[in-house]
Amino acid sequence: MKKKTETAKVPLHEAFGLNVRTLKLWWKLYPAMFLSATAYTLVSTFLPYVGLYFSAKIIDELAAARRPEVLLQLVLATLLITAAMSLGKAALERWKNHERTGWFSKDDKLYSEKLLSLDFCALDAPRTHELLSQIRQNDQWFGWGIRMPMRQFEALLTALFQIGGSVALTASLFTLSVPSGPLMVLNSPLSAALSVAVLLAATLLVPALSNAGSIYWASYADKAKEGNRKFGFYGFAACDRRRALDTRVYRQDILCQKSFLSQNLFGVKSDIAKLAHGPIGMYSATSAAVSYAFTGLVYIFVCLKAWGGAFGIGAVTQYVGAITLLSGGVASFFSTLGEMRVNAAFLRTTYEFLDIPNTMYQGSLTVEKRADRKYEIEFRDVSFRYPGAETWALRHVSMKFRVGERLAVVGRNGSGKTTFIKLLCRLYDPTEGEILLNGIDIKKYNYTEYLSVFSVIFQDFKLFAFPVGQNVAASADPNRARVEECLKKAGLDERLKEMPLGVDTCLYKDFDEQGVEISGGEGQKIAIARALYKDAPFIIMDEPTAALDPVAEYEIYTKLNEIICDKTAIFISHRLSSCRFCDEIAVFDGGTVVQKGAHEALLSEDSGMYKALWFAQAQYYTKDTADRSAV
Length: 631
Ligand code: ADP
Fold this sequence. Notes:
Blueprint: H1 12-29, H2 31-63, H3 68-103, H4 106-117, H5 120-124, H6 126-142, H7 148-175, H8 189-219, H9 221-235, H10 244-250, H11 252-263, H12 271-307, H13 313-354, E1 377-384, E2 394-401, E3 406-411, H14 417-424, E4 432-437, E5 440-441, H15 447-451, E6 454-457, H16 468-473, H17 480-489, H18 493-498, H19 520-534, E7 538-542, H20 550-558, H21 560-564, E8 568-572, E9 584-589, E10 592-597, H22 599-603, H23 609-618, H24 623-629
Parallel strand pairs: 3-8, 3-9, 6-7, 7-8
Antiparallel strand pairs: 1-2, 1-4, 4-5, 9-10
Helix pairs in contact: 1-2, 1-13, 2-3, 2-7, 2-13, 6-9, 6-13, 7-13, 8-12, 8-13, 9-11, 12-13, 17-19
The structure holds adenosine-5'-diphosphate (ADP).
């Protein structure tokens, strides 16, 4: 199937459907936005008509009867109504702006909720991230995407109210006749029809020209997105904390600047600058010229009728003003419809992301709460292939985790260790075979319930710029004594004493000047404390001491019994010496378990993979250090 690009024209019915869907979505998410915008638009659009109507009446009175009491009444009415409406407009604007501040975060929330609710395999898919990045870039480029229909809704409302008000004030222009003389020709239905035709032609031409211009902006979207992405990358390279050291030492900022400038994406000689000079400028200037020419024609028609005596001088200002507003309203109505169609292409991307389906079966069983923590997990002939991959990442894996025992998972890179843990946490479902918790397929459990039996320390764990206590408890209301106890078990008690606010000290300085920067090893200890705080029956550790120095690693291993307690533990480790304390070691190779058993037994298998790995590593240690790290 041919891939639809964002700059392709969307069929009308589809564009209509996408815009209606977006407006319904906003109505559901934020009805106050709609109400405030509608009320404000109504009052602000009608305000100029009040002025037009009353000034026409006042001018007519001044030009004819000049009755002081009538003039006074008209002036007072104008002042009072205008003042009341202006006050109302100000109050409604305040309401609308207030609601708008809350509106800005709504779409971010929509996207993050979608991401959080996605099956992990969908979250992991490159297309998901590509879509998300496109959505962000479209928004940055021109505000294209899901917010745009809300702005367009306001523009459409304004245009419709403007058209309604203008038609009401203009109708009598065609019904009032020139009483006598050659200008009576203007009374004929033909002249009225001609006037309406000119009105329509001009009002349709103006938005058509302006739309032709905006299509060029949209057509530049792909390049602009690329430009924004490159600008974000090269322009901020020097500010990126992760790259700051390399950038300074090797002056990569100069390289970045040169590279960005050489691509000429936004400069004065760039394609977008040429478009702005050329067709975009031409279309917009022609559109303005047609609009002014039309206003001139309106003046001539209205003045001729007034000259012939059809109405007074005051009505001239009313008609000219109202028709100009009418033409502006119709033009804006059609140009907004055109923009909605252009934006529909960007909405396609938004909904492709929001409509990503969840295909994993969601069970509803609760996990039995057992005081004896006897939870047994079994892999029964499990095979797994990543979506789209041709080779098996795991093949025919059968294994039972015995309650309260320690299992080490070892093997070379790419042998399937991480995949095994991903399946255990049900981030993916097996392609073949099944995984059972206490004899029941894990798919049948409610997923949140199922996850509650695991504490995981990932190798690339992430902490947040929150207080230490909140990080450990993963809660805004941590149990301080328990947090401190877990930090002590993880070996961070000395460092904690140095922190200015103890467990209330913020990690990192992103949001708090008193925040503390921590080393990789300290972060890993906090991650271990977080796993301990959760106190789940299973604890999974993926290279739990990778970022620790040898002394800290030694401390952790000596405390391991205390840390694990009665939990069932699963370790992934490259350092075989650190797996010796485990009851059982499973050796992975090419996605299958090639050996299983205790350290000594595995080492005695001369042709086994374990022995080969063990001696390959041992040669890097002196006998001393090998023995020490093997404690
Ligand atoms: P290990 O943790 O032992 O280093 P992994 O479980 O990460 O190994 O990888 C096992 C196999 O699965 C490897 O061949 C790897 O290339 C492949 N693999 C891992 N992640 C993905 C993924 N997201 N998509 C496709 N293949 C993957």
